[in-house]
Amino acid sequence: MKFNTKTIHGGQHEIDPAYGSVMPPIYQTSTYSQTTPGGHKGHQYARSSNPTRSALEGSLAALEGGNNALAFGSGLAAIDTVLKLLKAGDEVVSTNDLYGGTYRLFTQIFEKFGVKFHFVGMQSAEKVASYINENTKLIWVETPTNPMLNIIDIKGIAKVAKANKVLLGVDNTFATPYLQQPLDLGADIVMHSATKYLGGHSDVIMGALIVKDQELADRLYFIRNSSGAVPGPQDCFLVLRGIKTLHLRVQRHCENGRAVAEFLRSHPKIDKVYWPGFEDHPNHDIARSQMKDFGGMMSFTTVEDSYEGAVKVVEKLKIFTLAESLGGVESLAGHPASMTHGSIPKEEREKNGIKESLIRLSVGIEDEEDLIADLKQALD
Ligand code: P1T
Question: 55 FRET partner, CA 20 to 30 A, in 43, 46, 156, 328?
């Protein structure tokens, strides 16, 4: 089955046995009756499993080329579960430029439990390798990175991970499985904030992990069942519905992304535009080799290069909504330093290029002329 067909049919084996409904029903139940202890029809208690969730997980596994998928109550709950594979004394080599909430989870929750993190610019696999020692258990990659749109060579890092018997987890939120499939490039775990492109309509908070290895899936399942960060069936239904148009939406995000990035770059009030589709983006060749297209996420600074200047622009936008999050059908603008990355200390943020003047765009699927006109009037 090819990708576009998979978004609609992937992992969907069972038509509703009761009435033949084409979409899986929303099983809004916390528990399932048993005829005798253990005498159930495959589901006992909804923290452990739910048929609507299983339908979504089938779809997620198919899209990422995995054998198992697990859905969570949020993207951070999914990452939290990966980190719970570790124990005190273990070390993690993590991308330095990453979602502020992930950085906060690592530094303010897991460091307390004795896990050590190295935040590293992952532009070369050799550099990543130099941080590995006998305590290293996980390499955590976010690519494209949030919000600087750096691209990390998944295949290159996977070689380092394999050689050192270290797990490689990739946050594939910005790319989506339509653009990039990390398991095929050698990753062990793919993670999504399904809140974003997978859901696609800014109406759900959800996370996901997808893996190939059964033993790893069992360990993650055990942690999720023990810690309990599961999504509800209504949200699973919504994300499954969202996925059915993932390919169409992401194609349009990419087309509009290119048009907006090129417009911004040509505007006299713009200083830098960070978008991996530009041929002179420092990681453009890696992006071209591991991604199908370049996506609708980008960041930029204006020549004014000030907090006040950035605020003026985002306040003037009319079609782009000033809001946290990304990946929905509607275009959003954000100010990373004060919003999504506010939980990273200023010094750390600025080392990675997240200036007070930086604006991030999630380019939606509206008409590109309207998006460009909106940016133009705000900049003018
Ligand atoms: O919000 P949640 O579903 O828990 O996902 C967290 C998360 C994980 N990874 C990446 C790359 C993310 O971008 C996010 C969430 N990001 C935003 C809310 C944002 O506006 O960047």
Answer: 328
